[in-house]
Amino acid sequence: MPLPYLTRDFPGIGGVIKQRAEDFFVQEIPLYDPCGEGEHVYCEIQKVGTTTFQAIDRIAAALRVYPREIGYAGLKDSQAVARQSFSIPGTTPEAVMGLKLPGITILWAIRHGNKLRLGHLAGNRFAVKIRDVQPTDVVKIQPLLPMLEKRGMPNYFGEQRFGNRGDNDLLGAALVRGDSREMLRLLIGNPMPGVDDAQTTAARMAFDRQDLDTAMRIYPRRHGMERQMLARLIKTHRPSGAMWLVDRKLRRLWVSALQSRVFNEVVAKRIDALDTLLQGDLAWKHDSGAVFLVEKPEVEQPRCAAFEVSPTGPLVGYRMTLPEGEPLATEQAQFAAFNLKPADFRRTDGLKVKGARRPLRVQPRDLNLAGGVDEHGAHVTVAFTLPPGSFATVLLREIMKPPEQELPEAAAEEVEEPAAVEE
User: Fold this and answer.
1) Which of the two ends of the chain, N or C, has the fewest CB atoms closer than 10 A to its terminal CB?
2) Tens digits of residue pLDDT in 240-261
3) CATH assignment at residue 112
């Protein structure tokens, strides 16, 4: 079901985003500046049409270092003009500045003592052009800005977290439950006409009717993992054996999607009271990321109104702290909807998923609107700053309010949630 808007009493302006890369600009805000000394070279790059990992691979190959030795603070969308920082060992600032790589421009390079780690950023600054609108539409959405800055925006995970077929969370649930048959059904069967092409749809239909040989024969070769799993299943008749062909990184992605879906549903249930603390809430301190139990909401509510603290929701895992009272009942209802409990995450095909808390809302800052016309036509530009871990598309969704299927997968790599998985 579509997630509810916080600002549903205000009309949106519709429109489209990401018709071209230069319409979507994102820049990391560093957590600290490099000091000028040390064994790592920090650099800021600007990339266009390139994923973060593609940029890392190209830089590593050019400088003859291992890709895994290059540090980064977060992931950035490929279909955008994106600026982000890397740390690179075993090289010099001069060598980094001398790189000439497709889709990548080196903006500066300075030495520092430690490797850049995931999450080492203060936030992200965005400037996004919404097309197929009128410049005067800024008047319609201007009243939204004070509300979003005062109450915050829902801290939903973007729909891109759930994959092109929208079922990464279901795969995660099957994985956590140890249901290999259901995972195979979702991965190899379960056709979605309109999402899958005709040949893939036919192959998935053959699998669903247990005609494995036909499915194997017609499955497109680009679906390499599905074909390998089918071959193993045909040979062994053991669903669990076929599932071991799924690599650990993909399993982690599925579990993360499951956590994200459960969290989104909790936010949706509390959408009208994101800025209200309840007794038993676990509240998030925005200045430190610490969490505390709310025993007297009337005492803590002024801090919530000042956006010093916010209620939290679950990134479910076996070590996640649970709230009490009404907030606990809301979360447990969502666990039950997925037939899950936190203890199920103790051992997930070799992964131990600890879990964490996440604020139900975040505060967009420095919100600005501007209407204009350029060589590509009319647009409304929305500029804003978000803390790490939140999605630009969620804010744009509140402003645009397009039909759900029409909002493109913008900034699919904006952020990467801090790891909640132990190997």
Assistant:
1) N
2) 888 888 888 888 889 999 999 9
3) 3.30.2350.20
User: φ and ψ at 9, to 5 degrees?
Assistant: -80, -5
Residue ranges in the chain whose pLDDT is less than 70:
1, 347-350, 403-423
Q: CATH number for the domain including 335?
A: 3.30.2340.10
**161 assigned to some structural domain:** no
Q: What single string gives the DSSP state of each residue in 169-219?
A: HHHHHHHHHT-HHHHHHHHHS---BTTB-HHHHHHHHHHHTT-HHHHHHHS
Answer positive or negative: Cα dihedral of 68, 71, 75, 78: negative
Catalytic residues: 77
Return the DSSP state at 1.
-
- Count of structural domains, the chain: 2
Q: In terms of Cα–Cα distance, which of 335, 385, 392 is closest to 363?
A: 385
Residues 6+ apart with CB under 8 A from 198: none
Q: Can you give the pLDDT at residue 413?
A: 44
Residue 296 domain boundaries: 279-362
